[in-house]
Amino acid sequence: MKRVTAIVPLLLLSQLTFAESLSYDFVQVGFVENQMAGLEAFEQIGPEIQASITFFDSFFVKGRYRELDDSITGDNGLEHTLDESNWQYGVGYIFEVNQNTKIDASVNVGRFAIDLNNGVERQRGDSNHHSFASNIRYMLTDNIEFSGGLEWQFWEGSLEQKAYRLGAIYHYNNFSLGADYIKYSDFEACSIFARYAF
Predict the structure, then answer these.
(1) What letter would DSSP give residue 10?
(2) Taking the CB of the first residue and of the last residue of the chain, which one, N or C, has fewer CB atoms within 10 A?
(3) How far, in Å, are 53, 153, 161 from residue 112 at the CA level?
(4) Which DSSP symbol is given to 17?
(5) Where is the signal peptide (predicted)?
């Protein structure tokens, strides 16, 4: 995960022009690196797509989809693979604290599916969940944004977990480059992404 988070110092060194800051109207593509508790031998990597659009000024809808995978050679000499697909959609409200700070709150639904193959047998599992999330976004300078957030997820079978998120984005006109770190109860993920605000 050190490779992914290396972009953060670069964001802090940049001094380019002012962008449309703290926009909730955007499309975003990136790569995620994920590691699960109990499956630390795997470091899943794959693409992720996100989008958000506002309506009635302070409301927004958002969506996210990603597919991650990794493969290793097991002690039995066979290839072991781990595949994950994960999507989430939600609707939220934006609170404008001041011109440099916004807080949002959202309700979300999602689905998580995993496929583990050790070369001999295959195990598959999936689960739906719903969640409540809140984030704070702050413009440190005209084009550097820091953000943080919390999410409470409720899974099938009365399971729940919390997630903590930290992020940094460098804005240049309508384009942005950023990095996120998210720590869940049983896994953690780092991502780098490019965003276009419209």
Answers:
(1) H
(2) C
(3) 23, 12, 13
(4) -
(5) 1-19
**Of 1, 21, 12, residue with least CA distance to 176:** 21
pLDDT at 13 over 50: no
Q: Total structural domains in the chain? A: 1
Q: What is the DSSP string of 87-125?
A: EEEEEEEEEEEETTEEEEEEEEEEEEEEEEE-SS-EEEE
Confidence of residue 19 (pLDDT cuts 50, 70, 90): very low
Query: Contact 8/165 with Cβ under 8 angstroms?
Result: no
pLDDT of residue 8: 52
The parent domain of residue 40 ranges over 2-102+117-123
Q: Is residue 156 part of a domain?
A: no
Is 68 inside a domain boundary? yes
Q: What are phi and psi of 78, to 5 degrees?
A: -95, 155
pTM for this entry = 0.85
H or E, element range at 4: helix 2-5
Q: How far apart are CA 189 and CA 150, in angstroms?
A: 14
Q: What does the DSSP 8-state code read for residue 166?
A: E
